[in-house]
Structures are given as C-alpha cells and as structure tokens.
Amino acid sequence: MTTTLEDATTPLAAIGTLIRGARQNMGLTQTQLAERLGTSQSAIARIEQGSQNLSVDMLARINAALDADLLPISTGSPRPTHLRVTGGQRLSGTITVNSSKNAAVALLCASLLNRGRTVLRGVARIVEVDRIVAVLQSIGVQVTWSPDGHDLEIVRPEVLDLTTIDDDAAKRTRSIIMFFGPLLGQESSFDLPYAGGCNLGTRTVEPHMIALRPFGMDVVANAGAYHASVVPDSGEPLSVVLTERGDTVTENAIMAAAGRDGVTTIRNASPNYMVQDLCFYLELLGVEITGIGSTTLVIKGRSRIDADVEYAVSEDPVEAMSLLTAGIVTDSEITVARVPIEFMEIELATLSEMGLQYSLTQEYTATNGRTRLVDITVYPSQLRAPIDKIHPMPFPGLNIDNLPFFAVIAAGASGQTTIHDWVYDNRAIHLTDLTRLGADVRLLDPHRLDISGPTHWSGAEISCPPALRPAVVILLGMMAAKGTSVLRGVDIIARGYEQLADRLIELGAQIETFRD
C-alpha cells in the first residue's frame, strides 16, 4: 500500500511551506520544478498550498529535485485540524470578498463544452475546486494554475477518457453531477461515480434526471455509479420545465442546452448568482441566451464549440454574508468590500428590520463586466428579533446558503426568532450546537428552530458539524463568546472558504490552528 503524508505526523501545509521555500531558494518557478518532477504546475501549486496528498516516492523525488532533505518520512495516525478561538474580540478594518465557489465549480464543469482554451480568472483555492480539477485532469483535461495561484487555464482533449476518472475525488463532491449536462451531447453512453459532498440529509438527484430526460438522456444507478445513455439529438426545439428551481439542476439543463444545435426553452430556472456566471461564460463561447436573471431562459446552443476565452469569476454572496456576520456578532465596525449587492438585498432588508446599522458605497462593476458590487460597512447595533420568521427562497429571495448565519445573528438579538430551513432535511439540527456556547436554540422539527436572545455567550469545545455553513456559524459564535473555545475537526470549512481563519485574524480575531 502506498503511504501518503496525509497519514503522517507532519501537516501537509507545513510540508508545502518547506517545499516552497526550498524551491524559491533555488530560484525555480513552479513550472520549472514541475518539469523536473514530470508533473504539472498546478500539482506543484497544490503541494505548496498543502492541499495535495504526497506519496513517499514523490517526496523523495522532490528532495532530489531540490537537492534537499526537507523532512524525515514517518507514518502515524491522521491528525485533523482544530481551531482555538479566544472570543469577545472587537474586529476592525476592511476585508474583500473572494470569488464564488459555486460559480467556479459550475464554470469548471462547463469548460468541458469548449474545445478551445478557457482561462478562469480569480478562482478560489478551496478543496471543492481542487476536487473538480482532479477529476478533470484524470479524464485528460489539461488544467494549469497560474504562477500566482489565482487563475486556471483549461484545455480539454478532443476525446475525453472517462474510463480513467478519479473515483475518489468524484465521490467526495456533489458537483460531479454537473458533468451530465456538458457530456450528454458528446457521449452516447458514459458512467459517473455517485455524488457526495456535505452531509445535509437526503438530496435526491431525481430533479436533475427530470431536467435532462428531454435532451434524450436516461440514467440507471448501479454498482456505485450512474450509467447514462443518450439518444441522438434531433435538433428540434425543446421546452424543459424544471420541477425544482435548484441552482445545480438549472446549470445542468443550461449546459445540456448549450451543447446542442437548436433552441431550448427552460422554464422555472434558477436566476441565482452562479447560474448567471455560467450564462455569462457561455455567451463568450458563442451560445445565445436570453432571459438571464429571470426564470425563463431561451438558449441557442452549438454542438461544436472551439473558442479561446477568458472569464473572471464573480464575487461570492455567501462569503459576503459570512464576513458581515463576523462583524455583526462581535459588535464591530468592519467594511466588507466587493459585495455582489444584487444577491444580498433581501438579507440586508431583513437585517435592517432587525435594527442593524450599515452603510453602502455607490455601485461599481465587477471584473467580469456584469456583476454589480458595493462595499458594505456594518456598525455596532442593538438587534431585535424580526416580526416574521426568517426563511430562504430561490433568488431573488433570501439565499438558501445564507440562512444559517441568521441563527447566530438572531441569538444576539432581543426577542424570539423562528428560522425555517425548509430546503434541507437535517441542516437545522447542526445549528443547535450554538446552545453549547450559551444560546437558547430549540429544535421544533427537522426544519424549524426557535431562537431566543440576547445570548450571554460563553466558550465551549465543540466538534465541527459535518456541513459547511453550520460549521462556519459555530466558528462565528465562538468569536462572539468570551473566553476560549475549541472547534474540532474543521477540515470541512476548507471546502468552501479559502484561508478563512487567517482572513478573520487580519480583522483582529484571535484564532489559533492546531493539531493534536
């Protein structure tokens, strides 16, 4: 069995730092080191970021290439990452919103439609992106990170080799299901591993299947994989009605429509931020789309796309909400820059009803030339519970992924707040961990919470929930709590956030990363 340093006593991030330092001391670029090792520049970037597993053989080759003995090789038990938080600290300063994880993942999947060169600017370096990149590389796609680690160049081969797909990476992300849309117009039959991702209860893939059947695709699940078969496209106009206005369902249908000659009308489509990013990219590829930002899209696709394009990924409204919440719960004045305001208006209206004091700059345009941005400054405020329950809705309603942040905000407000998380079966239960920090959170049923405040926060040790947004909510609660808290097993946060703890530290948070 191959021994990897993910199983070693030395953290991968520390190994990556040593390798980067040794490479720089030799005056080598990442590309030059990659050439010496017979690997890709993107692999070197991942190694130096600590997000790439290393075999003992690879470490030995790196040692030889850099003429160094970077560290001894030893084996042992895995060591999960934990955070020690000294709460009750006021934050200050300005923090900039990173690009959207969900948009980046959709764009990576959509790049399979293009036989030309795609460059994605400002891609977040997160685990979810790395997993999709690994899957793309495993089927023959050339994916290369820029030397600064911010941009991705993607060049697909004429023929994809789906038999060599990285099952492990694919099974650890639900995003693999968005390969169906771009592939169904190119393959008569193919297999994809079962989708994974966050543990949020049952999330059926049936809405995806309903959306893609009009395109001639039939899917059978067997032996740990989805087997898809596709009948030839007639080129006749198609009308597709989505039974669920889901983001990834809509994206799958859009990519299927983009890859066929003919006109497709999609009704009940999600107009959310990542869907709009996908449409903006496809327009660069020559796909004609009307109705962007609405629930009805008319798409004139192309069965053969060969274009060299560059696209800058838009900013992430969910990260924006996370950062705003950090300021709110710590009673701080901070500025969150580059907020995509179109996708935050309901959240801000709800916070205004709760008494939050904030200000906005004039709007300006994102690098992609389409998304409207503002800078938002939040001020210390006396919050009160809203009159009505807080619940998510498809865009332009309150973002489904932003709902959990209102749990920790409501805990600091006077009065009783009901939160109705109707989308997920079991996400609400993870938010009851706030009671460990002193909050009064009652689970009414798998979808509803009653939260009474204001909370007298206190520190505690909590195991990280197995779901991304609740995990960040608990971290933010710890920042509000006086004393020391420990959040154990926080690796899931890296699925959707790039160096979140370090960025919060820059605002004045006291957070220490450690391993047992």
Quick structural summary:
Its EC number is 2.5.1.7. Residues 19-73 form the HTH cro/C1-type domain. With 516 residues, this protein is an alpha+beta fold.
The name CATH uses for the topology of the largest domain is UDP-n-acetylglucosamine1-carboxyvinyl-transferase, Chain
End-to-end CA span = 25 Å
Strand content: 15-25%
Number of domains: 3
- How does CATH name the architecture of the largest domain? Alpha-beta prism
Poorly predicted runs are 1-10, 72-77, 197-203
* Sheet having the most strands: 5 strands, mixed
Number of strands: 23
CATH class type of the largest domain: Alpha Beta
Rounded Rg: 23 Å
**Number of helical regions:** 17
Average pLDDT rating: 89
At the fourth level of CATH, the homologous superfamily of the largest domain is Enolpyruvate transferase domain
Instruction: Note the overall shape.
Output: globular
Find the structural class using helix and strand composition.
alpha+beta
Bin the helical content: 25-40%
Organism: Serinibacter arcticus
Family: Belongs to the EPSP synthase family. MurA subfamily.
GO molecular function, one term: UDP-N-acetylglucosamine 1-carboxyvinyltransferase activity
Pfam family, one: EPSP_synthase
